[in-house]
Design a protein that fits this description.
The complex is a heterodimer of chains A (about 140) and B (about 230). Chain A is of the alpha+beta class. In chain A, about 35% of the residues lie in helices and about 25% in strands. Chain A has four helices and five strands. In chain A, strands 1, 2, 3, 4 and 5 form a five-stranded antiparallel sheet that branches. In chain A, helix 3 runs antiparallel to helix 4 (about 85-100). The radius of gyration of chain A is 17 Å and the shape is globular. Chain B has about 230 residues and is mainly α. Helices cover about 80% and strands about 0% of the residues of chain B. In chain B, helix 1 packs antiparallel against helix 11, helix 2 runs antiparallel to helix 3 and helix 4 runs parallel beside helix 10. The chains are: A alpha+beta (about 140), B mainly alpha (about 230). At the A-B interface, helix 1, strand 1, helix 2, helix 3 and helix 4 of A face helix 1, helix 3, helix 4, helix 5 and helix 7 of B.
Chain lengths: ~140, ~230
């Protein structure tokens, strides 16, 4: 775990290098299986984007946007897991995946991180991380 | 000319409202988050009421360390970092025993706001992908930010994105020049706020919009202090 003063320092002495390069972008995908060792039958993208969002909804989200901000935090944890893996980032993703699932969901939850990037003219996806499954009941 | 006391109080009020909005969002989160952000809501209300100044603000600065520890960094990247910069600059300014030190810490916030635009423009313009419009196309095409799949179609409009890229870079690089004349600075801040509003709508970055606005009184005060307006 990092010292909070060390975490504060980049805020007080900022680099301001927003979007200097467009890095590969993570997609979190999860799967449920009956046992810890069973291979997941299918991976589901965590909170896929809707096809359209109205201007009214965009403006409303200026004042109330918890779900999207939580998704951005999960994205940040995914980036941290690949850059500097920690149990914290993995735990955070597991916990947020678990609370998003229906109450009657059961079994073992796993997730993986697919990173999307542009190579020349083509868009490529590469799975860079896969977490060991955890029993769903222990995450709630 | 806006006074130091007036600008600091205005910043304090805007920050308390911005952090109140963020904290209310966290009440939908996990249990340990609700405890931390419930405490921050109480402190925000004390700041808004102007009670026991500056201690509720100092309390919020202390609490920010626990929140950083909880999430092992900012919850929402750059927007939370700007919130921390505003909070700590203001808290330190208000704790300082002498006027020059108060001005130093509050002026630091104004200077950092200027740098937030200028440096962002500088790091983009040295990248060929930004100069060709390719980087902005990539943001729409595959980054995690567009709020809908429909927005990804913007990646297929290279000429529009080229113009948008250069407009953003030119504005960011020219921003320091607005400090030379009060009407230019006000116009620059309106343009910048519109830019943050667009980012909030297209990319869901609502926290950026509110936290950057919180630093505007500091740069307005700093300009008056330096140029004697």
């Amino acid at each position: 775990m990092n010292n909070p003063l060390r975490l504060l320092a980049p805020a007080l002495i900022p680099s301001w290098n927003f979007f200097d390069v467009i890095a590969p972008s993570p997609r979190v995908e999860y799967a449920l299986s009956e046992t810890a060792t069973a291979a997941p039958a299918a991976w589901t993208e965590f909170r896929p984007r809707p096809a359209r969002v109205s201007i009214l909804t965009m403006l409303t989200r200026l004042f109330w946007n918890p779900r999207w901000n939580q998704s951005l935090f999960v994205t940040a944890c995914a980036e941290r897991l690949v850059d500097q893996p920690t149990a914290h980032s993995e735990d955070e993703i597991f916990r947020r995946l678990a609370v998003d699932l229906p109450d009657d969901a059961a079994g073992w939850l796993a997730f993986r991180l697919a990173f999307v990037s542009r190579q020349g003219e083509t868009i490529e996806r590469e799975v860079l991380f896969q977490a060991a499954p955890r029993r769903l009941e222990t995450l709630r | 000319m806006i006074t130091l006391t007036g600008a600091a109080r205005l910043t304090e009020l805007m920050l308390a409202l911005a952090l109140l909005q963020q904290s209310l969002e966290h009440l939908r989160g996990l249990r340990d988050e609700r405890i931390l952000f419930g405490a921050r809501i109480a402190l925000c209300l004390l700041v808004l009421a102007g009670v026991a100044r500056p201690w509720p603000l100092v309390g919020m600065a202390g609490l920010s360390l626990l929140i950083l520890q909880r999430f092992q960094g900012p919850y929402n990247g750059g927007s939370d970092r700007m919130g921390l910069l505003v909070l700590w600059s203001l808290a330190l300014a208000e704790l300082m025993p002498s006027r020059p030190l108060q001005e130093l810490f509050f002026g630091y916030l104004g200077a950092q706001l200027m740098l937030s635009y200028f440096v962002s423009g500088a790091v983009k313009i040295v990248n060929p992908d930004w100069r060709s419009g390719r980087a902005l196309s990539d943001v729409f095409r595959f980054s995690a930010y567009p709020v809908s799949e429909g927005l990804r179609a913007w990646a297929q409009r290279p000429r529009v994105l080229l113009v948008m890229s250069w407009a953003v870079m030119a504005f960011e690089l020219a921003f320091p020049l607005t400090l030379l004349w009060r009407p230019a600075l006000i116009a620059g801040l309106v343009v910048a706020a519109t830019f943050h509003l667009a980012n909030a709508c297209l990319f869901g970055l609502n926290r950026f919009f509110w936290t950057w606005l919180c630093a505007y009184p500091a740069i307005l005060w700093l300009q008056g202090r330096v140029l004697g307006h």
